[in-house]
Amino acid sequence: MPGSPVEAEICAYTVNGEKIGKPTKLSGSPAKLVEDLNYLPLGEILPRPCPAVFSVIVNYLIRLRYSDNKVGWVSTAFEVNECVVTTNGRHRSAAYFGEEIKHAYETGRWGGFSSPTSCASAPGHRGQEKVIVPPGADGLTLCRFHDGELIKHLDRATAKQLAAAASALPTRPNDFQCDGPTGGPEIRMIFHYPIGPPAEALLWSGRCGVENLYVEAGASPQLLELLAELP
């Protein structure tokens, strides 16, 4: 989103376009919200299978008002399958932050994204449409994918080392065709940044390597060795 809006308001709608309750005006400056939105990865992804899990979908429309009374809009949604597109009408992102925008609508406060020790799925960071992990990470959380259990939270030096190894991998568009021996990824790597949302990369065993929502790559021996050496 361009510029520095002075006010943010969120409206909620059903899938049929019926308004749910009253609009929520966010307290304080919307600067942090806009900063986080501007650091989401941009672009389309290849069609992916969405789980056939019934979900009540809530559409959210964020209204950003500027000092000259011009208005910008961002649409997104809460949907448990995370098959959502966020757009401002000009740019589109497959990043999902339904829980965060739902919380902001219900509380009137934008709380940002997951804490450094959380194993919750991360929306992604700008640049992940091209590389597995963008540079600049200052922390890393490792979690087991299947049960969401925290493995370890790692310091800035280790995060930068692993991010560099992952970002050096040649990538291709993610075709969502991987299927490991356990039916899914082994490790969720959540890289944290001083500005903007976390970046998530999933590490598979066997041939599938490593992926994010946009691109995939083979896991290099260097990356696997670094992970194996972690205390």
TrEMBL record:
Name assigned to this protein: Uncharacterized protein
